[in-house]
Amino acid sequence: MTSMDLRDGRTLRLPWPRHTGFVAGARLQLAIFRRGWDSLLALVTVPLFTIAFLAITRHAGRTDLTAYAVLAPAVVAVIGMAILTSGEVVTQDRSNGSLELALAAPSRFPIVVVGRVLVVTLVSLVAVVEAWLVAWIVFGVRVPVPHRTAFAGALAVATLATVGTALLMSSVFVAARSARTFQNTISYPLYLLGGAFVPVPLLPGFLHPLCRAVYLSWATDLLRDCLATKPVPDFWPRLGAVAGLGAVGFAAGYAILIRVVDRARATGRVGHE
Amino acid sequence: MPPAVEIVGLTRVYPPAGKRATARTALDGIDLVVERGEVHGLLGPNGAGKTTLCKILSTVLLPTAGVARVDGYHVVKDTAQVRARIGIVFGGERGLYTRLTARQNLGYWAALYRVPRKIATRRIVELLDRVGLADRADERVETFSRGMKQRLHLARGLVADQRVLILDEPTTGMDPVAAHDFRALVRSMRAESRTVLLTTHDMAEAEAICDRVTMIDGGRLLGTEDPRTIGRWISAYERVEARPVPGSLAASLAALNGVTEVESIDDDGVRVHTAAEGATQAVLRTLVDAGVTAITTGRPSLEEVYLHVIGARGLAV
Questions:
Q1: CA A248 from chain center: how many Å?
Q2: Count of other CB atoms within 10 angstroms of residue B9
Q3: Residue whose C-alpha is closest to residue A243's, from A169, A167, A160
Q4: Segment holding B122, helix H or strand E
Q5: Number of helical H runs and strand E runs in chain B
Q6: Is A32 on the interface with B (CB under 8 A)?
Q7: What number of other Cβ atoms are within 10 A of residue A248's Cβ?
Q8: Is A177 exposed, middle or buried (0-12, 13-18, 19+ CB in 10 A)?
Q9: Which regions of chain B are under pLDDT 70?
Q10: Is the pLDDT of residue A271 over 70?
Q11: Does B105 reach chain A within 8 Å, measured CB to CB?
């Protein structure tokens, strides 16, 4: 039960929560997924990437990299959906004409977007299950998770950080000029700087500071360490880095989205239409 | 109790879109009152400022100057209250999630308007039935005709049981049957004492469903009229095209009461402009009596009527 202040000083008790915009966004995105599988294409690529990466590591005799080869396709799919699906949420609303109508509704539009982006990110986690299953079914490899609780915690925090990054992308893509070019080119730099394919310590030293500014680099390193048998070093500080950078991305994305909405009201245009 | 819509000195200037562009005044200090339970038409040609006014009232655009209130609430300072009270339907097919069903679309908008789910479920069924889409409730919107999408838009505008509705050119592109049905829906809203502000550039539509009509052009209100007056204008300002019309017959036509102009078209034809009730019949009778059979009549464009009205009364309408 929430309340609304009336002009005469009375308070009106509302039988519905103010966060219904979040729930509305989440339900909308689920419905869109059910009705249009093309927005889930990133998940289709997971088996292909998993087979390719595992085939390479096995051919090279590097079974010690099996966990890396399984984790990489999942990370690529999660980030791919953050860029291509979450990143399109606001832009598509602008294109189909529903953005102005949503801005005229009582629910706060940025909250609606957060609900949608959260659902996209949660659905993208199917990629983790896919990669593990393909490794098992195709190669007979069962990738153990020795630190299950730590892995689950790291995955949960990484998921929330991805929501923050996805929100940032959806707002930047609608606000920026030449956003489509940016959207099409950002994925591979992000995979590399985020250590999705190659762990950050193996990248050239001059890239390390840049990598450490990306939450994904902390997240992938942490997830990989959770798949090793030795103890996970500095778990909490590293988890904090994932959460902190994710929070920064979320705050920036939310602020940009509010600015986009304010500018739309001021100029009559949403971003660079 | 405040009026449903109250506008005082409302101005909206769009900033230049580029370095060489200039600022554009879409609304120029307009004043307007729409009483509760009224169906009020806003009549004007494309670019008159109708959509800008609708956007300001629905809080998605800020005015440059002036005040607009909906149900007594300021559209800039009390956006939450205004948004909860107003339903908006923009013209055209856009604004729906076409891959989703009609029911899913309405469910989403009901949630955005914070309608409790139990109430929303019941209301969506009622609305779909009311707009004639009950049988198509669970079909994807992408399979709908333009008229069906417009009716779904109207249902969307009513999903939170809003008492003030803004319909921005809702019948644009509709076929005549769909437009007729749509107008019947608007009349039923009046019967429920809802306030409707409807923009259109169709004089006949304004005459058919509005209690009062305000004409707008170039961002300025030209005046508010009873729709019957609009109807008189439509019947008065007509034009008749005929051929072949010899010069002597053209002179006879020009001499008739209510004929304002006879202009030559092509080699042997004329276009006769009238500005009084009954003048068209007199022109037609004269032409037929003279043996002319290639005759067409047409209603004036909105701009032509404006020219007549403004020419006769200036801007102090």
A1: 14
A2: 14
A3: A160
A4: helix B117-130
A5: 11, 14
A6: yes
A7: 16
A8: exposed
A9: 231, 234-235, 301-317
A10: no
A11: no
**Chain-centroid distance, C-alpha A62:** 30
Nearest CA among B92, B76, B317, B81 for reference residue B199? B92
Judge: B97–A36 Cβ closer than 8 Å, yes or no.
no
B272 touches A at CB < 8 Å: no
Span A100-109, pLDDT tens digits:
999 999 999 9
CB contacts, 8 Å: B58 with chain A: 104
Selection from B231, B199, B226 nearest residue B211 by Cα = B226
> What distance in Å separates the CA atoms of residue B83 and residue B189, rounded to the nearest whole number?
19
The percentage of chain A sitting over the pLDDT mark of 70, rounded to a whole number, equals 92
Smallest Cβ–Cβ distance between B14 and the set A15, A264, A268 belongs to A268
Query: Would you call A265 an interface residue with chain B, using a CB distance cutoff of 8 Å?
Result: yes
Give yes or no for A264 touching B (CB within 8 A).
Answer: yes
Q: Are B188 and B150 in contact (CB under 8 A)?
A: no
Q: What is the ipTM of this complex?
A: 0.86
Is pLDDT at A272 greater than 60 in this prediction? no
What is the largest distance, in Å, between two alpha-carbon atoms of chain A? 76
Please, are residues B10 and B56 in contact by the beta-carbon 8 Å criterion?
yes
B residues 209-228 closer than 8 Å to A (CB): none
Size of interface A-B (CB pairs under 8 A): 98
pLDDT digits (tens, 9 = 90+) for B6-23: 999 999 999 887 778 888
Per residue in A153-186, pLDDT (tens digit) is 999 999 999 999 999 999 988 887 777 788 888 8
Q: Are the Cβ atoms of A104 and B62 closer than 8 angstroms?
A: no
